């Protein structure tokens, strides 16, 4: 087992939260590391039946929590399938954090990134935070397992209209989704900012 001290994302979390809070998040979301890739974080996609769908590998800066960018200018990202040369035939994905959803689940909060879902689960534990893995993950196939749950969606700034249109479509099929426009009203934050960015900004400012 790779120690937390070799996982950049976990190191970053400890600059914001207590060790106990971080450990709880690590255990809840089953945050993983990769033994032959120092610093990398594994975000496992696991459903309510504990079936593993996917493992996304990402590298973060320990001080800023931002994605590390390679020489080509792109974020360093891979997958367990790629690292193990597993055939992608029949490859499916699910919401990150789906294994946390049960019959008596609290209100579900949807956000784009896995990192932000974990961070917001510490800031706002009254919700069950799930990640779509990107703006395109806000879709029927991903959300079908939580159709009977009350859902609040928190899109990144600039994505509100897209998610609102999609939510209206899904609600016509029996979903119960409300889309928050709070970020859109915050003029001091740029397009692409997500809810966790705002909460971390205020935490780091001591506000």
SSE order and pairing:
Layout: H1 8-13, H2 19-29, E1 32-33, E2 40-46, E3 52-59, E4 77-79, H3 80-83, E5 108-111, H4 114-123, E6 128-131, H5 140-143, E7 150-153, H6 160-171, E8 176-179, H7 195-204
Parallel strand pairs: 5-6, 5-7, 7-8
Antiparallel strand pairs: 1-2, 2-3, 3-4
Helix pairs in contact: 2-4, 4-7
Domain DUF6371: 7-157
Protein name: DUF6371 domain-containing protein
Explained architecture:
With 207 residues, the protein is of the alpha/beta class. It folds into two domains: 80 residues, no CATH class; 107 residues, Dna Topoisomerase Vi A Subunit, Chain: A, domain 2. Helix 6 links the parallel strand 7 and strand 8. The chain is globular and about 45 Å long. The mean pLDDT is 92. Pfam families: DUF6371. This is DUF6371 domain-containing protein. It comes from Flavobacterium erciyesense.
Features:
207 residues, alpha/beta, Dna Topoisomerase Vi A Subunit, Chain: A, domain 2, four-stranded antiparallel sheet, four-stranded parallel sheet, 7 helices, 8 strands, globular, DUF6371 domain-containing protein, DUF6371
Briefly characterize the structure.
The protein contains seven helices and eight strands.
Radius of gyration: 17 Å
The share of residues in helices is 25-40%
| CATH topology name of the largest domain | Dna Topoisomerase Vi A Subunit, Chain: A, domain 2
Quaternary structure: single chain
List unreliable stretches of 5+ residues. Answer: none
CATH domain class of the largest domain: Alpha Beta
Number of helices: 7
Trace the largest sheet across and list its strands.
1-2-3-4
Q: Looking at the structure, what is the overall shape?
A: globular
SSE string, helix = H, strand = E? HHEEEEHEHEHEHEH
Major pleated sheet: 4 strands, antiparallel
CATH architecture of the largest domain: 3-Layer(aba) Sandwich
Strand percentage, roughly?
A: 15-25%
Through-space gap between termini: 37 Å
Mean pLDDT: 92
- The tally of domains stands at 2
Could you say which structural class the secondary elements and strand pairing correspond to?
A: alpha/beta
Tell me how many strands there are: 8
Protein name: DUF6371 domain-containing protein
InterPro entries: DUF6371
């Amino acid at each position: 087992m790779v120690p937390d001290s070799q996982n950049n994302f976990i190191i970053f979390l400890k600059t914001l939260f207590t060790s106990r809070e971080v450990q709880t998040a690590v255990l809840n979301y089953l945050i993983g590391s990769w033994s032959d890739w120092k610093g990398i974080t594994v975000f496992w996609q696991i459903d309510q039946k504990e079936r593993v769908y996917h493992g996304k590998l990402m590298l973060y800066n320990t001080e800023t929590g931002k994605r590390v960018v390679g020489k080509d200018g792109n974020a360093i990202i891979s997958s367990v399938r790629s690292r193990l040369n597993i055939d992608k035939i029949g490859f499916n994905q699910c919401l990150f954090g789906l294994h946390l959803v049960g019959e008596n689940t609290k209100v579900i909060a949807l956000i784009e990134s896995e990192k932000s879902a974990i961070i917001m689960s510490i800031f706002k534990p009254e919700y069950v935070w799930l990640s779509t893995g990107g703006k395109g993950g806000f879709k029927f196939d991903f959300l079908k397992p939580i159709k009977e749950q009350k859902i609040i969606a928190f899109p990144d700034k600039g994505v509100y209209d897209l998610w609102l249109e999609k939510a209206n479509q899904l609600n016509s099929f029996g979903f119960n989704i409300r889309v928050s426009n709070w970020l859109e009203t915050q003029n001091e934050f740029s397009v692409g900012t997500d809810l966790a960015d705002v909460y971390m900004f205020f935490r780091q400012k001591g506000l």
